[in-house]
Amino acid sequence: MSNAISLRGLEKTYANGHQALRGIDLDIKHGEIFALLGPNGAGKSTLIGAVCGLVKATGGSIHIDGHELPRQYREARAKVGLVPQEMVNEGFESVLSSVRFSRGLFGKPPAPKLLEQILRDLSLWNKRDDATMTLSGGMRRRVMIAKALAHEPQVLFLDEPTAGVDVELRRDMWAMVRRLRDRGVTIVLTTHYLEEAEEMADRVGVISDGRLLLVENKTDLMARLGRRQLRLQLQQPLTQLPADLAGFPVELVDQGRELVLDVARDNQGIADFLRRLAANDIDFKDLHTSESSLEDIFVELLRKPA
């Protein structure tokens, strides 16, 4: 079975000489949620634009469900739905008319029941006759998603979909994304809310300066690059670490009032470390463990030189 998206050597250099994409190789599987992360200007929106046929690549190849861009543009583009980052002003057109028109653009026959279900899923059915321009920003964002889904795409791109959306709408939106994934739709999203990517994504790609730094299963990435720490608040400050603790990955912080131990994923070494503390008459009054978040890993990756 072909991938939902397959990119090989994808390049984009703009007329002013700026190289936004530098040899991107990427496969995105059918039915997965893929999070593309990177700072502003990293190339995320350019990559999405190229795959959606809105930006003309200057090198490499793009295949969507086996269809090549730009040679098979119509077939490839029909597979894709896009929710852009920028809000679009729809004027006085009603919600239902706007969504119906988007379906017609792809030559799809009328499907009133389908469109009703899409609007109901997005809590828009009771707004179907309202002019889109009269809706709140969060509701207009939902209309954009409804339009992207109207032609039943197999791949849905969400470019910063929850920017400016309140917490309740964001939660509803991600519930809808999960339902789409369960129906086999491939979801590609960019987001500045890394906790969303951590919760939602199956795999993560990190892009910086037009280059993919990595593509990895989210769970494997967090296990490989994440850190676990044991922090102990001491009863009495230490001026230096006892020699007996020299073999442990431990650091004395907070003016000697706290010990921070890097912990293996299987917690090995903790019991031995605590025994050594007791043997050196070092008492602690509190301890807690912490794990790296996807945000911690992301920030650390971007600090590393390319």
UniProtKB/TrEMBL annotation:
Q: Matching InterPro entries, A to Z? A: AAA+_ATPase, ABC_transporter-like_ATP-bd, ABC_transporter-like_CS, ABC_transporter_ATP-binding, P-loop_NTPase
- ABC transporter domain location is 5-234
Q: Does the keyword Signal apply?
A: no
Task: Write out the entry's keywords from A to Z.
Answer: ATP-binding, Nucleotide-binding, Transport
**Single Gene Ontology MF annotation:** ATP hydrolysis activity
Give the protein's recorded name: ABC transporter ATP-binding protein
Source organism (scientific name): Pseudomonas turukhanskensis
Keyword Nucleotide-binding appears in the UniProt entry: yes
Q: Which PROSITE patterns match?
A: ABC_TRANSPORTER_1 (PS00211), ABC_TRANSPORTER_2 (PS50893)
Task: Give the organism's phylogenetic lineage.
Answer: Bacteria, Pseudomonadati, Pseudomonadota, Gammaproteobacteria, Pseudomonadales
Q: Which domain of life is it from?
A: Bacteria
